Amino acid sequence: MRSFSSYTCSVLLAPLLACACDLINPANSQDYSPSRVSVGELAMSTWLPAGLPEFRLSAADEANLAGLGLTQIEWLQRTGIGDNTAEELAMGFCNRAGLKMPVYYEPPGFSPYDKLHNWATTPDVAADFNETVRERVQGLKTQWAGSAGFGGYLIGHEDYSDRFYEALAHTVSVLQSEDPTRPAVTVGHMDHYPRVGRFLDAFFTEDGVEPNIFQHEHYVFRADTETGGRGLQARLDDLVAGYGRVARHLQNRRGRWHAIVQVQSETREGNGEQGLYYRKPTAGEISVQAGLALARGASGIVYFLYSSGVERVQDADGNLLQLRTYEGIVDGAGVPTPTYAGVQRLNEQLAALSPVLAPLHFHGGYASSRGLPDDAVVVSADSDLEIAFFGNQQTATHVLVVNRRPDEARDIQMVVTVEGARDAVSIEALTINKGSLALNLPGGGMRLLELIRASADSATEAGSP
């Protein structure tokens, strides 16, 4: 969810910034180099896992969360429940269920509408800034000591101003000095950061053990979005183009990224808007979002959002600007909606993919309809597919194939130059007939294939996808 006042300017400027970046930003190149860091274990997370707007985490709520197949949860209400905070109760659940949760870096006592902006948007780095950050980090480490679910620090949310980059850089530096084994996490839309290189330099550094994580938010299923055909493909083009820019920005940096994917419907009332704003994606549309993200090197999928309810969007003075009503993975009473089963099935597939993808480096992803690199082992493929390559830091050893038609299961054909291939998860051998490889893909579905090259090719094609 967004703070309206902080987001409006970036929305208005985004088309102009995007056009400028298309002319000068190497993130819009069609070429990729192997990512500096491997994909790592896939995170499967969700926002607002414990009610909206009131906190709710009953035994039934915990059972539903545990049954969804998540590895992580994030974003809790700033509220107290008896002698505990909502964050403390959620951490207790994570400890019991084997999940991770990044904790808020900010100190207690912030209003529900401040998000993370109070501290993160401090443009002045005073002489005591680092020591103040160090005290906060040490306090959090003490507070969460012994919590197996303590999974990092949530330090930013849509901080779209280069005035804050110096403070961000100092904060990250202190975090990585005081707690190098836990990542910092920040949330935003990559295209909305001015002077994005400076932002990336501040957030992704050479220090620490765990790479920091950028969570990229981008929702395309507006109320008028078609459920198939070229209209839908145009929306997916926009989505995957943004994912591709994130991938290229990160390919030479010591960092990872997660895709925040849309699972919600949303109606808006006020501030010039009335009625359905986002329609709820189908199971196939949720799956294709995840597939497109993985096909651009994402290390995690974050579902927005889990709970259903009403958000009151207010300005800095507390005046109501807009009411936003969400339906998420569960309804307002915590009962699973039809979305729950689709996300559960998708998480099962992601969990199976995770150990195979974890050690691999992303080599590049391409829309089949727009052509593949000349030296790729996949020469051509049917339309409306995404083809992504993974491997070690020199040679592609795996290819991910994503069906961009969420409403249509398909038998597809690819022309390949490798000697053989097998399903990377099931290890099922696949037949290549005169260079043609046939696959069946469910609507919006994906398959990861392991490539079997001729020995001579393996020795001579280092570095090619």
Task: Explain what this protein looks like in three dimensions.
With 465 residues, the chain is of the alpha/beta class. It has two domains: 354 residues, TIM Barrel (Alpha-Beta Barrel); 100 residues, Golgi alpha-mannosidase II (Immunoglobulin-like). 31% of the residues lie in helices and 27% in strands. It has a seven-stranded parallel sheet. Strands 14-16-17-23-19-20 form a six-stranded antiparallel sheet, with helices on one face. Strands 10-9-13-12 form a four-stranded antiparallel sheet, with no helix packed on it. A hairpin with a 4-residue loop joins strand 16 and strand 17. The longest helix has 22 residues. The chain is globular, with a radius of gyration of 22 Å. The two termini are 38 Å apart.
